[in-house]
Amino acid sequence: MTAQSLALFAGALLLLFVTPGPGIAVTVSRTLDAGPVNASVYWGGILTGDMFWLTLAVSGLAVVSDGLTGAAPPESLANFMLAAKLIGGGYIGWLAYRAFRTAWTGERKALDFPAGSKRGLVAAYVAGVAMPLSNPKPIAFYLGFVPAFFAIDAIGPVDYVLMLITMAVMAIPAGLIYIGGSHRARHWIQRPEIRRIADIATGCVLAGIALLLLTR
Question: Model-level pTM?
Answer without folding.
Answer: 0.65
